[in-house]
């Protein structure tokens, strides 16, 4: 089903256009479209997938200071990683803003909140958003194409595992990583999604 037909998609699109540049708006639309293409197969609600895809990076254009101020004002818990790298707060801040402004469901809130780091025990919509964000077709790293291939050939569970393996691998090259990502991979290996 096309993204434009999803409930409230125009409203969400208008909202992200207020805060994001064209490139990030396009990325968000690609995430929503790609997520929408496999949500049904993965047993997920189509409109929730579109909402999560469109809204997930709503706070991605905020400066570090604003992310920290927003997180403090909204009492979002912060660890060392968030203090060193406030960009990690763009998911949590977006999730809180969207709940306030749009009354999004708990599943969409969870997906937007954890889309960068992951969290052990996260729900299926949230896992799906991580795959869609990592592998949407305009991503230019080869692992995105590989993730799409795995999803097509082997299904949702193997694609989720692959995406988190790569997230952990990419994280090793970064100065600051949130420990939730490695913990999520560990959890996924113990509880592989179907
Ligand atoms: Fe993001
Ligand atoms: Fe994103």
Give your account of this protein's structure.
The chain has one domain: Hypothetical protein af1432, CATH 1.10.3210.10. 66% of the residues lie in helices and 0% in strands. It contains eleven helices and no strands. α1 (9-19) packs parallel to α3 (46-55), α2 packs antiparallel against α3 and α8 packs across α10 (156-172). The longest helix has 18 residues, at 22-39. The two termini are 23 Å apart. The protein binds fe (ii) ion (FE2) (2 copies).
CATH topology: Hypothetical protein af1432
pLDDT averaged over residues:
97
Small-molecule binders: fe (ii) ion
Query: Can you give the helix content as a percent range?
Result: 55-70%
Please provide the ordered H/E string of secondary-structure elements: HHHHHHHHHHH
Distance from N terminus to C terminus (CA atoms, Å) equals 23 Å
**CATH homologous superfamily grouping:** Hypothetical protein af1432
Low-confidence regions: none
Instruction: Enumerate how many helices there are, as a single number.
Output: 11
Percentage of β-strand residues: under 5%
